[in-house]
Structures are given as C-alpha cells and as structure tokens.
Amino acid sequence: MRNPFKELLENEKLPDLIKTKVMKDINLINLSIDLADLFLVKNPDIIKTILDDELDLRDKKDISPTQKNDPNSTDNE
Fold it and tell me: Which domain holds residue 45?
C-alpha cells in the first residue's frame, strides 16, 4: 500500500515555524493529559472535594440577606 503523503511532500521541507508550533501543541496536549491523569486517575478525591466546596458555596449564595434578617422567622426568636 502506498503512502500518498510521501508523494506530496517528498522533496519539500517544512518551515521551522510550523515545526515549533506543532511541538508546542503536542507539549500542551501532553501537559493536559498529565494533569488529568494526576487529578482524575491518581487522586480522584480531589475532584470530590472541589465539587463539595462548590456546592457549599452555592448553598450559601442561595440564602438571600432578607431571609437571614427576617424578623418573622422562627430562627431569630
């Protein structure tokens, strides 16, 4: 089976600018994979902690200041 890409770029050389961009993209992808591996595979409890903290913050934001200072509330008696 023949490789059509070898026929297209057989005598041409890619510019160094393209090579550096491709290598930077590959490094960024590798970094993303390593971070995902670290936080999701090796230490999955970290995600649970982050999500629990986020839910706690949302619960605190759901209580409006008028609910906290309502004189008719049974909690203030």
Answer: 37-62
